[in-house]
Each structure stands twice: as C-alpha cells, then as structure tokens.
Amino acid sequence: MTDAELQAIGEKVVDVLRTIYDPEIPVDIYELGLIYDVHVSDELDIKILMTLTSPNCPVAESLPEEVKEKARSVDEVNEVEVEITFDPPWTKDMMSEEAMLELGFL
Q1: 3-state secondary structure of 101
Q2: What is the spatial order of strands in the sheet that 46-50 belongs to?
Q3: How far apart (Å, rounded) are the C-alpha atoms in residues 38 and 59?
Q4: DSSP letter assigned to residue 66
Q5: How many CB atoms lie within 10 A of CB 104?
Q6: pLDDT class of 103 with cuts at 50, 70, 90
Q7: In a 3-state reduction of DSSP, which class is residue 84?
Q8: Collapsed DSSP state (helix, strand, coil) of residue 44
Q9: Contacts of 90 (CB under 8 A, 6+ apart)
Q10: Would you say the C-alpha torsion 38, 99, 23, 19 has a positive or negative sign?
C-alpha cells in the first residue's frame, strides 16, 4: 500500500473515533485530545495511543474497548491495539479549538 492509502485508512479510523464521546464532557474523544497517535502498519493493523482525562476516569475500562471496536469497524482494518498512557498527562490545553469553543473556554 502507498503512504497515501495508509493515511486514508488512518483518517477513516479517526473519523470513527470522532463518534465516541466522553461521558462527562459533551465533546468527542479526538477533539478532547485523548487520542495521541493512530498508526497504520503495512499489514493494516492499527495501533492507537491514547490517554484518559484522569487515571480514575469512570470509563477507564470501557472507553479503550469502545475505541478498539470502533477502529476495528473500518473495513480495511485487520487488528487493533489500544495502548493507554499518562505521559504526557492530559490537560485542557490538548483540546482542539473546536472543543474549547464547545465548552466555553474560548
């Protein structure tokens, strides 16, 4: 696959991740800045590096599983691995401008 084709698949994955909303904040997890990286391998396996708003997040177990299932729903995707990290820790500065507007921070 070409780099452009791999990038297009990565963009499809990001599009489905934008359908997942944080249960406490009415903004999707991508715009919130919880997704640090989406990597598409040549074998069409996806590795997602993400964080949570806090280590004690009430959806700490269910949210990564939802991310995995949504990413797996993209037709071209084979396997999906979701890795949680708290380095760097999430702050509101990681939110997109759109998310900050939605939440009244701008």
Answers
A1: helix
A2: 35-40, 46-50, 80-84
A3: 20
A4: H
A5: 6
A6: confident
A7: strand
A8: coil
A9: 33, 34, 51, 52, 53, 54
A10: negative
HSE, CB side, 13 Å, CA atoms: give it for residue 106.
Answer: 10
8 A C-beta contact, residue 18 and residue 28: yes
The amino acid occupying position 89 is P
pLDDT tens for residues 6-16?
A: 999 999 999 99
Nearest to 12 by CA among 65, 77, 69: 77
Separation of alpha carbons 46 and 40, rounded Å: 5
41 pLDDT band, cuts 50/70/90, is very high
Helix (H) or strand (E) holding 80: strand 80-84
